[in-house]
Amino acid sequence: MKPIKAAVLGCGDRGNVYAGYALLHPEEMEIVAVADIDAVALKTTGDKYGIPDTLRFKDVDEFLAADVKCDTVINATMDGAHYYTAKKLIERGYDQLLEKPIVNNAEELEELKKLAEEKGVSLIVCHVLRYTPFYKYIKTLLNAGEIGRIFTMEMNEHVELVHFADSFIRGKWSDEKECGSGLLLQKCSHDLDLMCWLNNFTKPKAVSSFGSRAYFLPENAPEGATEFCYNCPNGKTCLYCAQKIHLDLDWFYFQTWRGIGKPLDEITREEKEEFLKTSDYGRCVYTLRRDLVDRQTVSVAFKDGSVCLFTVVGGCSSGGRFIHIVGSKGEISGKLEENKIKISRTVRKDGGFEKTTEIVDLSDKIPENSKHSNGDMSLMREYVRFLCGDRSSISLTTIDDSVSGHMCVYAAEKSRKEGKTVELEL
Ligand SMILES: NC(=O)c1ccc[n+]([C@@H]2O[C@H](COP(=O)([O-])OP(=O)(O)OC[C@H]3O[C@@H](n4cnc5c(N)ncnc54)[C@H](O)[C@@H]3O)[C@@H](O)[C@H]2O)c1
Asked: Taking residues 326-341, what's their average pLDDT?
């Protein structure tokens, strides 16, 4: 097999994760061009993959003008740039691996889907969780009818407190007006996609949702809290102290320090300290006024009568995704991060009843340091095979099967904001 040629549009964190597949498997994939509006990101990624200057571009238009020959474009630009960039790439006939959220509203999503179909190009969405051994195994059980017809599905996402603070209170997804996507679209388009994909024997028909920002508010700030953490008297006790999180522990460094505008390994501690005195990353999580919810529930009714419930909450002691599916012949439950799936059944035996429980342990399928429970690299492996003509993946589906989850998200946000149930026509 000749390696597929990929260009990377958006050379930030995610773009580099996917491009990294080429370093692990050079026989399967080669990065041939890079594009980014940020000069530092462009140079860092261009240098990493040995891309000549003539194949480094400052944006999608410059990339298109050069008429680069490649098998796919990995579009890992930020949420608000997806519609413009994805549309341009489809119009020019490029197959594309597009980060989620696909786009920020239903109208643009319909338009891109239609355009991709008309142009005959593939538009594959980075729903990485579908590719994890955990969810793939569950999907295989459901497809084989192991627990019969689905009655209900309960799903929860707990967002760990530092992750929540860094990404959704202080960080680049903290403001729906600026970013274009709220918590549900940004963080949980994965979960609603999983719900619809696992249950794709039918289609969603109605959605209702409740949610609010009820904790990260000025009235809940510790006594004497200041606007920035660096001079706050609660530095030794507050769970969200920016100095502790970012300077001492350096958690989420790949997001936090981007605003300094230098390659990560050249940034000094003094520059980080100064940055935290002026940037949102150094502000109090309670008084920093942002518009994202910190809890939300979504109920989805499906056409076959199954009802599914999803809850997300930010600010948890530990993060994780939980699932419990009840079917006519048994139940499946588990926590993604534990990589163990429990299958329980009540069966008839010798004229009586017998309760059975089976635990499937998938931990040995998760390499050390893998991201998203090995979803990222599994997605790339299956995507490369897809480009080579292999259509056997149960996770990788066309754009048509990737829109239901997003449509549920848009409907849920409408329901939450307008206080009513929203019907879907899918
Ligand atoms: N699949 C997942 O699990 C997952 C996880 C995190 C983020 N994401 C999504 O991935 C995307 C990228 O997130 P990230 O964390 O890598 O962000 P990032 O800020 O690290 O990277 C985005 C890059 O795109 C560049 N960019 C923005 N607009 C551009 C444009 N018009 N043309 C060219 N380059 C442009 C930025 O300069 C930046 O370098 C987002 O849509 C995000 O929501 C997905």
From this structure: 98
Residues 223 and 113 in one domain: no
Whether 112 and 14 share a structural domain? yes
Residue 17 CA: which ligand 1 atom is closest? Answer: 16
Mean pLDDT, all residues of the chain: 96
Ligand 1-lining residues (CB < 6 angstroms):
9-15, 35-38, 41, 59-60, 76-79, 81, 85, 99-100, 126, 128, 186, 372
Q: What is the pLDDT of residue 177?
A: 87
pLDDT digit string (tens) for 151-174?
999 999 999 999 999 999 999 999
* One domain, residues 134 and 54: no
Q: Best substitution site from 43, 45, 77 to test ligand 1's pocket, by max atoms within 8 Å of Cβ?
A: 77
pLDDT, tens digit, 9 for 90 and up, residues 256-281:
999 999 999 999 999 999 999 999 99
Range of the domain at 271: 218-282
Q: Which residues pair with 335 in a beta bridge?
A: 322, 340
Tell me the residue ranges of DSSP E strands in 78-129: 96-98, 123-125
How many Å apart are CA 199 and CA 309, to the nearest integer?
13
Task: For 375, list phi and psi in degrees, rounded to 5.
Answer: -70, -35
CB atoms within 10 A of CB 421: 14
CA atoms within 13 A on the CB side of 341: 18
Distance 77 CA to ligand 1 centre (A): 4
Dist. CA 181 → ligand 1 center (Å): 13
Q: Which of 97, 125, 153 is the last residue of a domain?
A: 125
What atom of ligand 1 comes closest to residue 79's alpha carbon? 41
Confidence of residue 369 (pLDDT cuts 50, 70, 90): confident
pLDDT digits (tens, 9 = 90+) for 335-352: 999 999 999 999 999 999
- Domain of 334, CATH number, reads 3.30.360.10
pLDDT tens readout for residues 221-233: 999 999 999 999 9
The runs of H, that is alpha helices, within 120-175 are 133-143, 161-164
DSSP state of 284: -
Q: Which of 99, 102, 379, 380 to mutate to test the pocket of ligand 1 (most atoms within 8 A of CB)?
A: 99
Q: Are residues 300 and 343 in the same domain?
A: yes
Half-sphere exposure (CA, 13 Å, Cβ side) for 404?
25
Do 283 and 170 meet the contact criterion of CB atoms below 8 Å apart?
Answer: yes
Number of domains in the chain: 3
In terms of domains, do 16 and 150 share one? no
User: What span, in angstroms and rounded, lies between the C-alpha atoms of 94 and 75?
Assistant: 11
